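Weekly structure sync, notes
Attendees: PL (lead), two postdocs, one rotation student
Agenda item 3: pending single-chain targets
PL asked that the sequence for the first pending target be pasted directly into the notes so everyone works from the same version. It is reproduced below exactly as submitted, 338 residues in total.
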Amino acid sequence: MTEKRDLPVLKKITRRTVLSLPAAAIFAPAITRAQTAAWPNRLIRIVVPFGTGGGTDITMRLLAPKMSELLGQPIIIENRPGGGSTVGTDYVAKQPPDGYTIVLASLSSTGIAATLYPNLPYDPVKDLVAILPTVFVPIGLSVTTKGLNVKTVPEFVAALKAAPDKFSYGSAGIGTTGHLASATFLQRTGTQAVHIPYRSPSEVYKAMISGEIQFNSDIPSIMAPFHRAGQVRMLLVATDQRSPSLPDVPTAAEVGMKDYKAYSWYGLFAPSGTRQAVVDRLAGVIEQALKDPVISAKFDDMGTPAMVGYTPSRFAQYVKDEVAIWGPMVKASGARVE
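Predicted structure, written out during the meeting:
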């Protein structure tokens, strides 16, 4: 007589059984394969959280071709403006951490936004992985020449004080560096003006030329063609040295405002959770692109020098330091976005 043995009971796997499993259990093998696959093996998206024509857009379009060449994959640039650059930055923070969607963020969307927006939907330090900075960006103050005949900072301050309800200034959004730079100038000079936020830098430039607004704060090299054409007049550069783009424009210290500083920087970030190997590869490629003689010369001509010599860890600490530095400055300005 054959001995009867107890056999393991195998449950029948039905569609209902599969659907009852946690998503992570079902897709874990696919996720694991994606994380261990050679990177990159397809197109990479770089989000620029500002409209076209501004400093971030120009910077990324200079770097992208060389980065694409070094990575061996196509790179597309996607402009996602809004919320003073926080909309596009938040979008990337919530993307899969696979290295195929990254963002060219700035001081506006990190160091400034952390304090400016009490309900910021992302944490610049925890929800983003710092890869590498790209360029340092000096800021200068310009006035329109359409209906405004001032040639120096003292003349402009006198005009502001004589008609405090007459003047307005523009920026590419609430909380951007341009916004806070102008607001700080008003605070330091004891003057007033109305802030008008636009969706893109190009809209600000059109408003300046037409006289719709009276002043703005932006990159000297971008304002240089308008300055030379007599459409605007840059009154000062808010950094320690004059801009090579406009060597005739004095620094803030030279016009008696030695404590007035305004600058920005742009850097590439990935969603939190991105593999370190991917971050390191991107950092190496960005560094190579920044050191390319042709690209480096263009940045120097623009007066936005490349920030070379960084590592992801050093850049991450730099971002933390900027949050700590700009937090008190934002609070002191009174700027706040609910």
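Discussion points:
- Strands lie at 44-48, 75-79, 101-106, 128-138, 140-144, 168-171, 194-197, 215-218, 232-237, 263-271.
- The chain has two domains: 41-137+264-333, 140-255.
Action: rotation student to compare against the earlier draft before next sync.
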